[in-house]
Amino acid sequence: MRIDTSSPEETRELGRLIGSLLDTGAFIGLTGDLGSGKTVLVQGLALGLGSDDPVSSPTFVIVNEYAGKLPIQHVDLYRLNDAASVESLGHRELFWSDGVTLVEWVERAGELVPDDRLDVTFSFVSEDRRSLTLEATGPRSEALLERVAGERGG
């Protein structure tokens, strides 16, 4: 599924919608260049999960946790070089939680990520516009993507 947004507010609202549909154990991998909107989407995901916590990129601390209707783990792998670095962090505790896991720069985790996840890839269309490609990789994430499409009217 491809969705274009023309402002941070639209990206955040898409995140809010997706977040409202997430349940325990959901994993969302985010890929895209710096400034493409990954953290903005996470802000919306947290809102959709009922969190009032301020959301910022955990680039320097790697993991931020937020309270919501489910615990939220926001992981940023930007400062890590490869899957071995991710594995040394205790990726099992990060990626298989009792809440929701949102991972920026997920491609740096390689094969360590769950098989069933929602991958969101961000691309610049112009200075103001972004194209988000949402791809399900298993039955659970496929059901989520179908719910997102239904809520968006298509």
Question: What's the helix and strand layout?
Answer:
Blueprint (H helix, E strand, L loop, with lengths): L1 E4 L2 H13 L6 E5 L6 H11 L14 E4 L5 E5 L6 H6 L2 H5 L4 E5 L13 E7 L5 E7 L2 H13 L3
Parallel strand pairs: 2-5, 2-6, 4-5
Antiparallel strand pairs: 1-7, 3-4, 6-7
Descriptive report:
With 154 residues, the chain is α/β, with parallel strands linked by helices. The protein contains 5 helices and 7 strands. It has helices at residues 8-20, 38-48, 83-88, 91-95, 139-151, and strands spanning 2-5, 27-31, 63-66, 72-76, 100-104, 118-124, 130-136. It has a 7-stranded mixed beta sheet with strand order 1-7-6-2-5-4-3. Strand 3 and strand 4 form a beta hairpin. Helix 1 (8-20) crosses helix 2. The radius of gyration is 14 Å and the shape is globular. The termini are close together.
Provide a brief overview of the structure:
This protein is α/β, with parallel strands linked by helices and 154 residues long. The chain has a single domain (2-151), classed as P-loop containing nucleotide triphosphate hydrolases (Rossmann fold).
Structure classification:
alpha/beta
Please, how many domains?
1
Total strands: 7
* CATH architecture type: 3-Layer(aba) Sandwich
List the secondary-structure elements in sequence, H or E.
Answer: EHEHEEHHEEEH
Please give the count of helices: 5
Dominant shape: globular
| Mean pLDDT value | 88
Measured by DSSP, the beta-strand proportion falls in: 15-25%
